[in-house]
Design goal:
The structure holds 2 protein chains of 2 kinds. By secondary structure, chain A is an alpha/beta fold. Chain A folds into 2 domains: 204 residues, D-Maltodextrin-Binding Protein, domain 2 (3-Layer(aba) Sandwich); 96 residues, D-Maltodextrin-Binding Protein, domain 2, CATH 3.40.190. Classes of the chains: A alpha/beta, B mainly alpha.
């Protein structure tokens, strides 16, 4: 990708257009403010993570991160324009400046973080490859799957992870190759395979649509790391900080028990970190709040919590156990609740 | 006896006898075919209409998500659950266009036939005024859809569904038509520079898939332009679609041009007509008439190809449908959504094909 990009840039140099590009490296925050709305790359439709509802409003935990950034920058969580991106164009659209940030179930990997010139600012969902089986199969752990037939999407990393996992555990399996998610659902439901494997969040979303979701279970073993998170372009660390801390603010709010309902009362809290987060405390005796460090208003985090909610509220509303998708917090619980969700201290 | 004679003379009977039951084998095939057609059509009609849910399910409850669909409540119910289309109708037709502004889109949809009728039918009374309107329509339509000067601005990112499909399809075809005539004439021109440019353009565009052009317009173009200069996403797609269509249509028209005997041009020249006069009055009318089927063919192809814009993040009819299926409230209602989308595409494509037949019949002269 960088090769293609550098090729284009050298092309531009020869064309003499480069001055226009070199001279216009404004800060993303200024550009966003000038435009009056945030441009956020979303999925073209993934239930619970980012999909338009019946009224055409985007919903999901990924698009909530965009809303949080808009609330932080503008004080208005709805000052976002969602640009639906497919997995093929998502990075190019970000690099070309079409969008200010990408929040679209994207796995943080070395190549994407470094070679593609992205900056992942955190993780808003820890995903991983899992297995789904019918409950009447009587299996409770992936270690009992020796000799099973597995529906697997061809040409994906999940295919390789599967081979590695079975090999490492000295088990054999019969692959049933399928092309798409819906084909996998059909094959699995028709009994052509014992197991369906893909990212656990995908398994939960698939299961939610089955005629009898309770007849299927996702096994506890997760065999790969898929940290999904929002990303921005390389080269504007101030902007990356804003997106990073917007996400962190949601996580810290959950930690401190601040919700969209009680955020106003929490302004009278005794907890110093809560007061710093909500913009009540000032930095030393400068009279300025913590928002100034980010170039934002002091009530930026207050606006996020008030308008979007904390991490837990977003999670439970879109993918939690009370939604059809029915995902338990698991890894995505706070560190103190047995998960690995952990935000740096707000000070 | 006399009754059986009159019976055999019944023309329906003899038609059936001759065409459907001329031998034992044919008779069996006919009966099997009728049975097959009955099975398929009764299944399809039951699914789409008789057993289907529209607004309410079989208990009379209003359907607001898939759990209310009859087939998800009663195992015995199999009908389609059209509520997904009805509840999301606004998205299918207008995309994310604000509900209170939807009248503007309706007005454009309503005016569209008036803009097209002048081009389509030449025996229309007051045709001249309709043609004037046709030329004004792009500006009126754009003003109505986009807004400005008193109307609220609705950015193209809010457009979607059928609106985007029709916008790209109709505008693309209408803009490509004049361009393709120029390209076709240019390719047959005797002037080497013009001829080379036209050949390179046509061959280049035809040599790459539409999706590549869309990608180039969508993600490559911004890399060339200075930061901050962002031509509208939809407009970029429209340019790509228009260029693509013009190259294909140009080749269809060139086919028509080549079918015109050389004598026609020579006769025109011997009458003292200039190149433009003979082209406009003699060559093009005949060439375009011959080219109608291939032109319509490319138009239908393009209309369906517009669904590729989903890949560059524009929500056309198909994109809106996919988003509907992705919504967990409506998950697994693929069949309903795809059948509906096919029906919409079929109506437009079949309409185009019928119009081309009408045109061919009307323009048919004895010498061809």
């Amino acid at each position: 990708m960088t090769k293609i990009k550098s090729l284009f840039i050298s092309l531009l140099l020869t064309l003499g257009v480069s001055t226009a590009i070199a001279g216009s490296h404004g800060s993303t925050l200024d550009l966003v403010k000038e435009r009056g709305k945030l441009m956020c790359g979303s999925n073209t439709g993934l239930a619970g993570f980012g999909a338009p509802n019946d009224a055409g409003v985007w919903e999901g935990i990924d698009v909530d991160v965009c809303r949080a950034v808009a609330a932080a920058v503008f004080g208005d969580a709805n000052a976002v324009e969602f640009v639906p991106t497919t997995s093929k164009v998502r990075f190019t659209v970000l690099q070309s400046g079409e969008i200010d940030m990408l929040s679209r179930n994207t796995t943080w990997t070395l190549q994407r973080d470094v070679e593609l010139g992205l900056e992942f600012v955190g993780v808003n969902y820890y995903d991983g490859q899992g297995f789904m089986v019918r409950k009447d199969l009587g299996v409770s752990s992936a270690s009992e799957l020796d000799g099973a037939s597995v529906c697997i999407q061809v040409g994906t990393t999940t295919e390789m992870n599967l081979a590695d996992y079975f090999k490492a555990n000295g088990m054999s399996y019969e692959p049933i190759p399928v092309e798409t998610n819906s084909e996998a659902d059909a094959a699995y439901l028709a009994g052509r395979c014992d197991i369906y494997t893909t990212d656990a969040s995908g398994l939960y979303a698939s299961r939610a649509g089955y005629p009898d979701p309770s007849a299927h279970m996702v096994l506890p073993e997760i065999i790969s790391k898929e940290p999904l998170g929002p990303s921005v372009r390389h080269g504007d660390s101030e902007w990356a900080d804003i997106v990073r801390w917007s996400l962190n603010a949601m996580i810290i709010a959950e930690e401190k028990g601040i919700t969209s309902d009680n955020v106003d009362e929490m302004k009278n809290s005794k907890d110093p970190e809560t007061l710093r987060l909500l913009g009540v405390s000032k930095v030393g005796d400068t009279g300025a709040g913590y928002g100034a460090w980010l170039g934002l208003d002091d009530d930026w985090a207050y606006n996020i919590i008030k308008q979007v909610g904390n991490y837990s509220e977003s999670f439970e509303k879109h993918i939690g156990v009370n939604t059809p998708i029915n995902i338990a917090r698991g890894l995505n619980a706070l560190y103190k609740d047995g998960g690995i969700l952990y935000a740096p201290p707000f000070r | 006896m006399s009754s059986s004679i009159s019976f055999t003379h019944n023309k329906y009977y003899s038609w059936c006898r001759n065409n459907l039951f001329s031998s034992w084998i044919n008779g069996i095939i006919t009966i099997l075919s009728i049975y097959f057609i009955y099975e398929v059509s009764s299944f399809f009609l039951n699914w789409t209409i008789f057993e289907a849910d529209f607004v309410n399910n079989f208990r009379g409850e209003k359907i607001t998500d898939r759990t209310f669909c009859s087939k998800n409540i009663e195992p015995g119910q199999h009908g389609a659950c059209w509520a997904i289309i009805i509840v999301r109708f606004h998205q299918f037709i207008y995309g994310f266009y604000p509900v209170e502004e939807a009248w503007r889109v309706n007005l454009v949809y309503g005016l569209l036939p008036f803009a097209l009728v002048g081009i389509f039918f030449d025996n229309l009374p007051f045709r001249k005024y309709f043609i004037y309107f046709t030329f004004l329509f792009p500006f009126i339509g754009y003003f109505l859809l986009y807004g400005g000067a008193g109307l609220d601005v609705v950015g193209t990112s809010k457009w979607g569904g059928l609106l985007v499909t029709l916008f790209l399809g109709v505008t693309g075809i209408l803009l490509a038509f004049p361009l393709s005539i120029i390209l076709a004439l240019g390719r047959r021109s005797k002037m080497p520079v013009i001829k080379t440019i036209c050949i390179i353009f046509i061959e280049f565009i035809r040599g790459v898939p539409l999706i590549t052009l869309l990608f180039t317009a969508n993600v490559m173009l911004p890399l060339f332009l200075p930061e901050g200069v962002r031509p509208d996403n939809l407009l970029r797609a429209l340019v790509a679609v228009t260029l693509f269509q013009s190259a294909y249509m140009a080749e269809a028209i060139r086919g028509g041009l080549q079918a015109i005997p050389k004598g026609q041009l020579e006769a025109a020249q011997s009458l003292g007509l200039t190149y433009w006069q003979s082209t406009r009055k003699i060559i093009l009318p005949q060439a375009l008439k011959i080219s109608i089927p291939p032109i319509v063919n490319t138009c239908i192809g393009l209309f369906k190809d517009t669904s590729l814009v989903l890949i560059i993040g524009l929500f056309d009819l198909l994109g809106v449908g996919r988003a509907a299926v992705a919504d967990i409230d409506w998950a697994k209602l693929h069949y309903e959504v795809y059948v509906f989308i096919s029906l919409v595409f079929f109506i437009f494509c079949f309409g185009m094909s019928r119009y081309s037949l009408y045109l061919e019949k009307k323009l048919k002269t004895d010498n061809s």
